[in-house]
């Protein structure tokens, strides 16, 4: 059955969902509910969104809210807002919706009683997990583990996942420093409670910045925030750890035209990493290095496979943990399940963190990063089993619908189209880059970038900004070539309007 | 219809749940599914739990796991384990289950399509919330807000809630320091990205320790962990902020016998707080104070209403934020929705954080703590709407079933029974304390404490440890006097066995 709902009436969709949920197990493609193209009825935000915004401002600071959605009418790649507008969504809730909106596999995910019980009886997973939990970890998280990694901890969000990966790196670093000893001195125990060395040692985590200070984003809790180097507004007025920062490569585009320059950039950045190790050795030795395969929030800055291979070699030589933050790149958007699979690393990364499209937070790790004692990487909930139930469905859909292949195909259409636009509008945009549908381009000025995003929205496409002056594409994994064409048409129209 | 299932067979319960879910709206008390008393068939952990433990140890460090549960057979106040044992649960997943296991109101929570959509289309709440979100915040979170507070932010866990409350305190402190100015200098912007002052200022948060170093617990992310002062194993090998710590009152019991001594203790502790303000003024000024109404993890250490009134006065005089961490005390276990309602504070606390029984993390705050700019207290998800759907049901049940009154009644039976046991076994236990069913007592030696918990478990009661040598009660809000009697009988039996 293929049918298109041009008018997504409230009652017809409700009836449809109700029927679907009864017929659990019957495959039903969300695409059928999508409109053929964006439908814009009001300015955005429209009057209803504006009213809701005022209401919410009475409760909390929500100045970052762009619009309010109507979840009942959202479908596939289309976000419906409170004012009846239907927007093609290339930003997908800050890159966190793997299958778009109202995917039938997810709407049906909790039809089974045992899954409902996992949802409402949330356990303290580190103390009283349910008897199906080890199996669930294997069937869901380990089934898609980065090659070579067979251990995983669950957490709740990206920041918490990164912070616990830091902890794992600190623990192993300290064990090595003690010559393999896994016990503590009385002085260490006492001083740890006072937040001072030796129990709370002066160690650091190295992260990366761009040339224009637009760099890493690893989250906003205080440990993660100390490694975040993207925007001052995330950090102002908050005390932080004085921790080292190295230069992330900044390439010239198109890559193939500037091969020599970019190779030189890689070498300089790797030399800069070595420099930081030397500089901080006495002050606050580096116990771990955290890096995004593509610096997303910081501007979709790419590093080459050679850069990442070189970085891994440095970390191995120095005996410190390399943490790949795949919170935004993980779960398929680059055309592979994990972006670092593009890098041909000689051995697996030490730790790989995830969240967003994975729906649960957590991190994979090499066995030597398992702490010798319990309760060191621990919290009350340690994740949320209900998120693994959803993730299991997501993985099934990715496999059954060959979504990684779709990402590659759609990515090609998108990138090719963006290259064309770059040629058509060289005074407005450049530096098209990325992998799969995880793509971006630069706009020549920040104001123009903001204006393009605003005008695109009014033309029916929801887009995302990143870095100083970039636009990033973060569509769901179900984004098809036909959606790419709509996006490209609207971007072209927008660029013409603003030319 | 009242029926008791003495044999909780897999199929009959499944059928029951299925029927319940179809008959959404029909009230059905979970109690009916409870066994009349604990049923112990194997040693605990039993052979199945032990096997699962081995399996899970191959995936992650899970040495803190006590047993594996069978969620299908859990009912009300009873946890069923993988080996067929049914334990009366007085610890409830580290105090995080408000209504016990498999409560019908929660099993039925997602029968409505709109709630399913909120569950599977998780938004970035700070950018594209759904159109029912402001109403949801009002109907759910603000309907039970601490008296005088009308603002709330949602987060995902207790640690993250505390860290964001720190941020709110830092922001207001810095605005005051700038004489009300809400803009930043270029130097501040530049230095914030480098993690150094003035952009990342040398400010601190004051927390509290006990006399024996067993003190505050505010979570495990790096900012929260710097204020946590309970156990060294939570902190060892992790760099921390050198932040001030003041003495939490340590009372003599019974309270009414040692009125003078305890009043003196309050005064000394408040003087110690003042001392910290002076001592840290030059080094790292205190911008906020965080405290639990009852230090839970640290040993169920109580502070008197007078102590908290005095602390609030100091914070007001000094112009810094008072953060009440109600992560464990919030949502009813002390007989009031918020524990600080027992303190008769002249004005509301500046910030009140929550998580655990509230199912969602977050914090209430006075309007002056709303940051002037967006994106300062922010992250991708900003909480999880599906948790508010569950919390809404929890609040309905608390109101409809008068659970706060039940907590008081059951608490009286429990406390009275514990006093009796304290008289019967003075060489083993003392210092019975607490409010509502949020109760604890000391055991004379840590080893004996651990042994009591282990033996109680074998006798059918799941209990929790806290502090150096205490046992804490954290039953669900549906714990009744009859459950209290079972607990007390088994504790008495256990004490006799170990005498």
From TrEMBL, chains A, B:
Gene Ontology biological process terms, A to Z: gamma-aminobutyric acid catabolic process
GO molecular function: (S)-3-amino-2-methylpropionate transaminase activity; 4-aminobutyrate:2-oxoglutarate transaminase activity; pyridoxal phosphate binding
Pfam families linked: Aminotran_3 (PF00202)
Keyword Repressor among record annotations: no
Record GO cellular component, one term: mitochondrion
Class of the enzyme per the UniProt entry, highest EC level: transferase
Keywords: Aminotransferase, Pyridoxal phosphate, Transferase
Cofactor or coenzyme needed: pyridoxal 5'-phosphate
Domain of life assignment: Eukaryota
InterPro entries associated with the record: 4NH2But_aminotransferase_euk, Aminotrans_3, PyrdxlP-dep_Trfase, PyrdxlP-dep_Trfase_major, PyrdxlP-dep_Trfase_small
EC numbers for this chain: 2.6.1.19, 2.6.1.22
Protein family: Belongs to the class-III pyridoxal-phosphate-dependent aminotransferase family.
Name this protein carries in UniProt: (S)-3-amino-2-methylpropionate transaminase
Organism, as annotated: Spodoptera exigua (Beet armyworm)
